[in-house]
Amino acid sequence: MGMRDKKRNQKRVLARRTAAPRSGEGKDFLPLEDGSGKRTRKQLQQPEEPENTATVVYIGHIPHGFYEDQMKGFFKQFGDIKRLRIARNRKTGKSKHYGFIEFESPVVSAFFKVAKIVADEMNNYLLFEHTLRVSLVPPEKVHPKLWKGVRRGFIPIDRVAIERKMHNKDKSVEEHKKMVEGIVKRDEKRRKRIQAAGIDYECPPLIGVIQPSAKKIKFDEN
Questions:
Q1: pLDDT reported for residue 175
Q2: How buried is 113 (Cβ within 10 angstroms: 0-12 exposed, 13-18 middle, 19+ buried)?
Q3: Is the pLDDT higher at 156 or at 209?
Q4: Is residue 13 part of a domain?
């Protein structure tokens, strides 16, 4: 008997052992793996459920008056809150009625996932005549700048101070000349619109100086 015949007989014996049921097992016995160590078709069709590691929750339809302090006091019953942010208007600082909460840990115990419990329990929750919209945010979809500046709080832009600073700024000759040219162009357009409307009106002439005037009084040291 050659080597090929021996290998062929060994394969037949292994095939019979894997096909025949062991003693004490019923007829309905189904091996989890075949003789080659591969998974069965049923196992391949059932995808493994990925572990839920989400810690960020999106909250929409936030009612008026339910701000950072109120949200912290309400949602801390589910777990320790790491960071909280409400979207606000940059000009006015008013709430945009949606925000995000990040919890310290995704899992408190083996069967208690904080963010998932919050999303399941608080979604469609009626609060101050507003139905909250709560959902999980996967880690890969969390924007890298989502929590930028959250520690110092929201500081709205003071537009009045910016305009005041620009108005009180000493202008150079070129800046003053450009400003005068803009005033003259707007006045010419205004005159044309008045004439096109058929109104007989004599616009007063513009009075001003080309050279910029100093807005601050400067005294000589001498």
A1: 84
A2: buried
A3: 156
A4: no
